[in-house]
Amino acid sequence: MTDAGGPPDDVARALFHHAPAGLFAMTADGVIRSANDTFCEWTGYPREDVVGRYFLALLSRGSKLIFETRYMPLLQTQSRLNEMMLTLSTNVGGTRNVLVSSVLDDSGAEALVYAAVFDAGIRLKYERDLLEARRAAETAVARVRILQAAAAGLAPASTLAAFGSALRVSAEMATDAAHVSVIVTGADGTLELVSGARPLAETVDLADLLPVGAALASGLPVLCRSAADIAESFPGLAAALDAEGVEALCVVPIIDNGTVSGAIACWFQRQRVLDENLLDLLGALATQAAPVLERIHLQHQIEHQSLHDSLTGLPNRRALQNRLRRLLGDAERHGRAVAVLFLDLDGFKAINDDFGHEAGDQVLEQVALRLRRVLREDDTPSRFGGDEFVIASDRIDQTSALEVAQRIRQAVREPLDGLAQGQRVSASIGISVYTPGITTPLSPDDLIALADEAMLTSKRAGKGRDTLLTA
C-alpha cells in the first residue's frame, strides 16, 4: 500500500487518515511506505518527509536500541507484536510515548509491516497515578501499623525508660535513621536521654547538642537534609557530626498543651529527602507520646510527694523506713554497719512562738539545707515530723557516726537567716548503730526507736549533745 493508493472508498480513506491512532506501513527493513495524517502530526513532519524515511530515524535513542534488538527480531519470528512501548522524537525536539502493535505480512511480492501506533501518554499517566495511589495506600497502611504499635507500646509505659523504648522503636520503624534518640525535659529544665543513642555522646553535653536545643526552644521541627544544611545551620558542630557520619538529621519536639516536654531526634548517615509524609508521621508519634509523657511525669510527681516532705523537700518517714529496710538488707548480705541519727531541735518552739509559724518554717528549711551540706554521700536525711530529723547512714562505724553528729550540731548552731535573723537553735542527737554479727538484728522501727531513746538521753543531759547506743 502506498501513500497515493489508499482505500478506494472515501469513508475508508478518511478513516485511515483521521483515525485516533497513527497508522503506517513499512518494509521489513524499516522504510516507511505509507502513513496516515495522525502519525505525521505526532511526528511533526509533513507526509513527504515521513514516507521514505526509516522508522528508526523517528525514534528516541533508547527506543532505537529496543527497535533493533527486540522489536524487529521478535516481529520476524512471531509475525505479530502487541503494544510494544516506544518513544517517538518529534521535529521540534520533543518526544511522545507510544504503544506500537504490528503485523508482518510476507504474502506479497514484498514483505510489509503494518503498524498501529497509540498515544501512551494517558495510559502512562493512569499507570503512574495508579502506582502513586498504591504507594499512598501502602504508606497509609504502614503509618497506621506504626501508630498502632506505638499506642500499644506507650499505653502501659509507667517509667521514662519504658516510654523512651516504645517511642524509639516506633521512630525506628518510621525511618531508616542510623540512630534515634528520645530526649525528655525535666521539671528543672535539664535534659535526659531516656532511650537510644546519639552522636557526640563523648564530647558534647546533651544540653549543648544544638539541633536538639533548637527544636526544644522553638517548638518546631529542625531539619537538615544534607551535610551542607548542617554546616549552614550548626557550623560549630558540623565537622564533629561529619566525623561521626551524620549527613542528615531531623528533630521533632514533643509538645503537650503548648509545653515542650521532649523530642524525637533521628540521625541519618546519608542525605535524606525528609518529605512531608515522614515529618507528618514523626509528628503523629510525638503527638501520641505527649500525653503519655505527661502522665508519667505526674505519676513521678505523685510518688515523689508521697515520699517527701512538702516543706523541706527531704524524704519523709515512709521514705526513711524504705531506705532503712534496704540498708539493713545490704548490711546482712555484705557485713557492713548501719546507723540512725535522730535529731531534735533545741529552741525551735521559742522561735515559733516569738516570731510566728512562718519563721518556724524558715528554720526547718534552713536546717534541711545545712544537713544536705554537711552529710556524706552515704547519708540520707529525712524530716521525721515537727522539728525532728532522722538520718540513715550506710558504710559507717561508731566513730564515723559521732563525727557526722558533730558536723550536724555545728551546722545547726550557726545563726539563722530570715524572720529569725541572728537567732540560734541547737540539736540534740541520738545515735543507734547496728553491726551485723556483733549486735542484735533490728528492724527499721527498732533502730529508729533506739536512736530516739538516745536523743532523749541527750536532751536530759543538757541539750545540744549527742548520745550513741548499740543494740
TrEMBL record:
GO terms for biological process: regulation of DNA-templated transcription. InterPro entries: DGC-Regulatory_Protein, GAF, GAF-like_dom_sf, GGDEF_dom, Nucleotide_cyclase, PAS, PAS-like_dom_sf, PAS_fold. Residues 8-56 form the PAS domain. Pfam families: GAF, GGDEF, PAS. Residues 336-471 form the GGDEF domain. PANTHER family: DIGUANYLATE CYCLASE DGCT-RELATED (PTHR46663), GGDEF DOMAIN-CONTAINING PROTEIN (PTHR46663:SF2). This is Diguanylate cyclase domain protein. It comes from Cryobacterium arcticum.
